[in-house]
Design goal:
By secondary structure, the chain is mainly alpha-helical. Helices cover 74% and strands 0% of the residues.
């Protein structure tokens, strides 16, 4: 149940973040030129990074392809409000996030019992 709740949270924020990026024609430049969009993207990234950091170790071990170092770096950069975070934010939002969502979906298909809700 715990993994399912985390999975749902990651997907909810991930889908919202990807929806924000869809309209950006100029990529990173356009994102960082818009304070409101950038703040929304960073907020979703922070929630996702925090959630990923709390995945059960067994789930993390089953996802060696996830760029865990990038997720850790963006978590640190956003929690500490580092001024030089543009590169890691853009990489995680545009590359690591879509890949992570795909990998989580594949794990969900391979290991459905981990994601069952038990009452």
């Amino acid at each position: 149940m715990y993994a399912r709740a985390l999975f749902d949270l990651i997907h909810r924020h991930g889908d919202a973040l990807l929806a924000l990026l869809v309209g950006l024609e100029d990529g990173a430049d356009e994102l960082f030129a818009s304070p409101n969009t950038c703040a929304a993207v960073e907020g979703h990234l922070l929630d996702i990074a925090r959630t990923l950091a709390h995945l059960p170790p067994v789930v993390m071990l089953r996802l060696p392809q996830v760029d865990w170092s990038a997720w850790s770096a963006v978590l640190i950069a956003l929690e500490r409000q580092q001024t030089a975070r543009r590169e890691i934010v853009w990489y995680v939002a545009s590359a690591a996030l879509p890949a992570t969502l795909v990998l989580l979906d594949e794990l969900h298909r391979r290991e459905p019992d981990w994601f069952q809700i038990h009452y």
